[in-house]
Amino acid sequence: MQAETEAIDPYNGLRTTQTTLPSRAYWDEADYRRDLESIWYRNWLMVCREADIAQPHAFRVFTVGTQQILVLRDESGTLRAFHNTCRHRGSQLCRESEGRLKARLLTCPYHAWSYSLSGELVRVPSKTLPAGFDKADYPLYPVALSLWRGFVFVNLDEAASGSAADSFDPGSGDLANWPLEELATGHVLRKVMNCNWKIFWENFNECLHCPGVHKNLSNLVPIYGRGLMARHDDPEWALHADNDAPEYAGGLRTGAETWSEDGRVHGPMFETLSEAERAAGQTYATHLPSMFIVGHVDYVRTVRLLPLGPEQTELTAEWLFPAKALTSESADLENIISFGTRVLEEDAAVCELNQKGLHSRRHSTGVLMPEEYDLYRFHEWVRGQHAAHGVTSTSAENAR
């Protein structure tokens, strides 16, 4: 009888007690190296937008764990990615984090080995070369690169397969109606959070904290004020199944249009959105482990994560607008940006609070509440990544 009830009851919540990941997973150096080896070095990671490296010879350097990745645009306009490492004795190639190369060759600042922008070794300044030495055997170490809707992703796995588009969370919203490729950056927020990267994702995946932490957001999205993310998070959802009020159905409060201080749009709205997308006011797409993107009716937000250590994570948020909004005198973009910034600052503060408490010698694991079903799903994803790549806590001791 219970099985029949569960089959017809689309309640989202967890039905059995589940424990969290062990506390050491958030602060232990070996567990951090394990995450790098099995997750960050083996998945597609968003690093920037194509517009950030728009011109030939433009480049950016990104650090993922211990790895430095160089992304550049060659003379033909093709984007390429390499390890920022010379094949001679391993020197760093580009010392700046971004810029434009001054020549058509990428020259190591140590011993002047020079490479074409497609990665081939073309010049070695030694007076003579050892027997059997062939420059063709020493190209730059390539890194897999994938483009999606104007965003640049890299994958450090030498056997990388598929594409960034293939690896979005299956439950992600469809952003096909948003003109992502055409949008321009209106604001960037960079912040170093003193917490493990997994804690940020856990916070993202539940709204039990919303009533106490996000007062303004809970007012804008009334269902968040109930500590829920969606209608079927409520075990008694059926009592309100016919009630489309936002506190039961989700979406923005009555009369609100977008995420902003006053809930109003402050620039041109996207004309290509469906009525359902306009009514929802927010459409999320998630790409573990490095980013999520949110489509609103008048702008798009992206949040990118990079791990800096067991207890530090870099967050980069961008607000993307139609180009005409950035030049319009009537577009009050600060009304939008300040609201989203406050939400992220509130999230960062409680993530850091969570990190501090995990060092208790008595706290080995936590327990999940029914509303934290997406945390359980995230934990299962982490466990699955570790299992799939055979990286144990012991083998991670020697991981780089």
UniProtKB/TrEMBL annotation:
Residues 45-154 form the Rieske domain. Keywords: 2Fe-2S, Iron, Iron-sulfur, Metal-binding, Oxidoreductase. Its cofactor is Fe cation. Gene3D superfamilies: Naphthalene 1,2-dioxygenase Alpha Subunit, Chain A, domain 1 (3.90.380.10), Rieske [2Fe-2S] iron-sulphur domain (2.102.10.10). GO terms for molecular function: 2 iron, 2 sulfur cluster binding; iron ion binding; oxidoreductase activity. This is Ring-hydroxylating oxygenase subunit alpha. It comes from Pseudaminobacter soli (ex Li et al. 2025).
